[in-house]
């Protein structure tokens, strides 16, 4: 994008409160086209249900630029578990014999658990961690059942997507595995502060689109497990709709769990 726009782009990692501190900073920035946020399902949908005192509204305080990646979750169990079928894990979950590790309250893995619980009509014991790497270590040690990417001694039993992934072509989707509505998508997108010029937004959208067509760039997005959106999903409206539907889907579900901070 820097090369395409002829403008240096500086990446500033603003951590804290699940990414909402960074999103808040952008929401309050001057709408001059010089400040963007790399938002996601957490900062621009789930956060509205998790943080009671959140001072921005993702539906009204930002200008959509483009969805840049979609990443489903993968439900994983320890390889030594006798079964590799989702329906058997559901039975274990209903019997209270499963713990579910996530990357933390409000993370996409936690949202996957919330949706999983609502679909199977049970409440699985949740074990929040400070990041997925710790979850993986415990899965390998046999202490958890967790949604994360399959590695080494883990067994992936379902992908929370409507189609199989290129990275794990042999792992069935949640639809194929018997739980069709277990669909979570950790989307990532670029947004400007509200009031940014439409000319700037359209120009930036075009630059992102061109950058995503560069093979080296697209490969770096796809190798960790992300899927680039198809051309018809790279529009301003597609992202605006995604934010709105994300809020509508996740906020009531999150609030019903009582985890709001």
Quick rundown:
By secondary structure, this protein is α+β, with helices and mostly antiparallel strands. 39% of the residues lie in helices and 15% in strands. It folds into 2 domains: 141 residues, 3-Layer(aba) Sandwich (D-Maltodextrin-Binding Protein, domain 2), CATH 3.40.190.150; 104 residues, Periplasmic binding protein-like II (D-Maltodextrin-Binding Protein, domain 2, 3-Layer(aba) Sandwich).
Molecular structure report:
With 261 residues, this protein is of the alpha+beta class. The chain has 2 domains: 2-70 and 186-257, D-Maltodextrin-Binding Protein, domain 2, CATH 3.40.190.150; 74-177, D-Maltodextrin-Binding Protein, domain 2 (3-Layer(aba) Sandwich). It has helices spanning 2-5, 20-27, 41-50, 86-94, 108-120, 132-140, 174-177, 198-212, 215-222, 236-257, and strands spanning 37-40, 62-69, 74-78, 99-102, 125-128, 146-147, 154-159, 188-193. The strands form 3 sheets. Strands 1-8-2 form a 3-stranded antiparallel β-sheet, sandwiched between helices. The chain has a 3-stranded antiparallel β-sheet with strand order 6-3-7. The radius of gyration is 19 Å and the shape is globular.
